[in-house]
Amino acid sequence: MQIEERSPFCEESVKEAEGVEAVCEQYLTERKRIVNAAEGRRRAHEVEIRRLRMEGLAEGRAQGQSEIDELRRQGEEARKQREETERKADQGRRTADERQWEEMKRKAGKLGLHGCSD
């Protein structure tokens, strides 16, 4: 009894006439297709990972930049408060100096020292 067909390969029957060479060729073709598909999925996955990393870096940079901006804003606010405090202290010293000068002029006037006035 002669067998007309061999076992199916990739859901296709292999006729005896096709022989080993035909089966090997089909196997190699199918293997290349499977390997190429797997390689394509691997590349797509790597691209997605790179994209996510870049998004993460961009978000990190944006967050870092916002933190830098906030620190700069706080530094500017602290500088303005320091300048305002210094201005008020200078104004207080001037007012105290003017009061002291006026008090000295008043005392000099009581003592009859006229050369001490403005």
Automatic annotation (TrEMBL):
Region annotation Disordered: where it falls in the sequence: 57-118
Biased composition (Basic and acidic residues): 69-106
Highest rank taxon of the organism: Eukaryota
Protein name: Unplaced genomic scaffold CY34scaffold_341, whole genome shotgun sequence
Organism field: Suillus luteus UH-Slu-Lm8-n1
